[in-house]
Amino acid sequence: MQAMQWSRLRGRSHGKRKLGIMEKREERAAYLFLLPWLIGLVVFIIGPIIASLFISMTDWNLLTPPKWVGLKNYEKMFSDRDFYNSLRVTFRFVILSLPVYTVVSLSLALLLNQRIRGMYFFRTVLFMPSVIAGTAVAVLWSILLNPDVGVVNQVLTTVGVVQPPRWLASRDWAIPAVILMGIWGVGGGVIIYLAGLQNIPPHLYEAATIDGAKSSQKFRFVTLPLLTPSIFFQLITGLVGAFQVFDVAYVLAGRGGTRASALQFYLLNVYEEGFQNGRFGYASALSWVLVLIATIVILITFRTSERWVYYESEEGKS
Amino acid sequence: MSPGRRLHDDIIPRTRKFLRLLALYLILIALCGFVLLPVSWMLTAALKPDNVPFYNIPPHWFPTEHFEWRNFENALLNPVRPFLRFTLNTLFIFGGNVVGTIFSCTLVAYAFARLRFRGSGFLFNVLIITMLIPWQSQMIPQFLLFLELGWYGTYLPLIVPSFAGNAFFIFLIRQYMRTFPRDLDEAAKIDGCGYFGIFRFIILPLCRPVLAVVVVFMFLSSWGDLLGPLIYLNNTDQFTIAIGLANFATRYSPNTNLLMAANLVMMIPPVLVFFFAQEQLIGGIASVGLKG
User: Fold this and answer.
1) Is the CB of residue B247 less than 8 Å away from at least one CB of chain A?
2) What digits encode the pLDDT tens for the residues B130-157?
3) A277 CA to chain B: closest CA distance, Å?
4) Tens-digit pLDDT profile for residues B57-102
């Protein structure tokens, strides 16, 4: 595509030579403007990624010089219970949270897209928690979700739930508890869907009405297909985020006990191995494995997207 | 047509419409309760004196009985956890990031948005990909790099990288810069303006709205960032508000009323920012979603 643009540019020019100099000047200027980012790309991203591959093959506690151990750190993972547990916790969270967040934020967007009085107020209130820091959300909800005297379980008991979940005190309900905290702050995703909804051209709905479509059919055949780019975007950002859960885990798992293992998210385990136990080589190896897994999952999502994401612009807009 | 029949035709759709509207409002109000009641319960709990039970059955949702405002003082001004200091530290890091990000991201976004150069498509793809790379892959080597430079225990590791740009903000600003007409650059060029001149005097002043969005996003992320400060800072005097709160919650087994007071105060600045910058914030998120 880039090459095409260039040839178009050349073709349009009258004095080729002169424009060639101009092009060169523009290119030189462009790279000067890009310089801060290019330096950062090498120093803070590409360099560290390559370095971490080497570090992952050493034994390094910062006190003594690094010792080359080859693939030993990777072998060690196979017998490391914390590794397996953190992987399980993270995957459980990814698999449970993404569908829940998608459905909740999509329904909320549909609800907030109605034209009724006072909608501005409702939107403001419902978006508000999305700006609150994860640490504060976790502190608040860890108190609200107290299994015996917490507010949530009192409400559940009042509406007739006989044995409300023990939330953070239980192995099975700790992850759903974290997801519930996420739902409280789901506004960011709702905004994305709302923008997607408002971007759907109204004439499509008019055409559907003329064709005699019911509102459920309009949703199925107009709204949903046209929202797939937004859903895809949310899915990707959600995946990237879900693999990097830290704040909530740090606050909630910090006190040990059942919680510590039920909420041992992958990044928390990397943090503990590296920064608390001083095993920087092993922590690097752990990071590499997660990056590999995350990359594969994201690539698969991109691959399948060709089948279900609908791009309007492909149909000859530009 | 008999009048009775017309009434029938009219009333049923109307009732249905009314019931639909009613259901809509009820759902919305319930959702607002889900958002607001926890906050109001937290305020109630934060205002309880030490000698009354913290949990009640049924719960006290609204502050009607106890108003122990001194809890806020005790929670925030205790020398063990100087929250005022933490706040200033957080604002300092935020300020450094604002300078760095605005400096670097506008320059880079300008090149991507308005200059033609070989490799622009490729580099832009690289930019997008860096947004997807989990930060863990760089966390440990970056830490070792900064340790080697002697920056451990300073704010430098939390500020300097912002001078190298942030992929998300570059993308956001670039999308905005692309909307200006090309004639602007051409006219300035004819007037003898160089590329930096065009950037500095034509494009940058037009970017104020998107930069406001960037600053709001940056405030929210600086305010909430826990992992970065946790890794690089080792002295209580340097801690940020997020570390202060996390430590308060996990280490000192605090009086829960004081914890709720501190937590409430921690929530207030982002919420205030949200109220004042709601339009920009929503516009910013929406534009990324639509073009992503």
Assistant:
1) no
2) 988 887 778 899 999 999 999 999 999 9
3) 13
4) 788 899 888 898 998 988 888 888 899 999 999 999 999 999 999 9
Tell if the CB–CB gap between A47 and B21 is shorter than 8 Å. no
A56 CA: distance to closest CA in chain B (Å): 10
Average pLDDT, chain B: 89
Question: A53: Cβ–Cβ under 8 A, 6 or more apart, which residues?
Answer: A284, A288
Contact yes or no for A192 and B35 at CB 8 A: no
Mean pLDDT of B228-239: 93
CB of B268 within 8 Å of any CB in chain A?
A: no
Question: What ipTM does this complex have?
Answer: 0.89
- Number of Cβ pairs < 8 A linking chain A and chain B: 275
Q: Is a pLDDT exceeding 70 seen at residue A312?
A: no
The partner residue sitting opposite A36, judged by closest CB among B32, B104, B126, is: B104
CB–CB of A181/A101 below 8 Å?
Answer: no
The answer to whether the Cβ–Cβ distance between B249 and A251 falls below 8 Å is: yes
Q: Where are the alpha helices (DSSP H) in B203-277?
A: 204-206, 208-224, 227-232, 241-250, 256-276
CA distance B7 to chain A (A): 25
Record the tokens describing residue B40, joined without a space.
Answer: 């109001």
- pLDDT for the residue numbered B2: 54
Q: Which of A13, A54, A139 to mutate to test the interface with B (most CBs of B within 10 A)?
A: A139
Is the CB of B38 inside 8 Å of chain A's CB atoms? yes
- What's residue B94's pLDDT? 97
Confidence of residue B17 (pLDDT cuts 50, 70, 90): confident
pLDDT for res B215: 93
- In chain A, residues with a C-beta closer than 8 Å to the C-beta of B275 are 124
Q: CA–CA separation, B263 vs B261, rounded Å?
A: 5
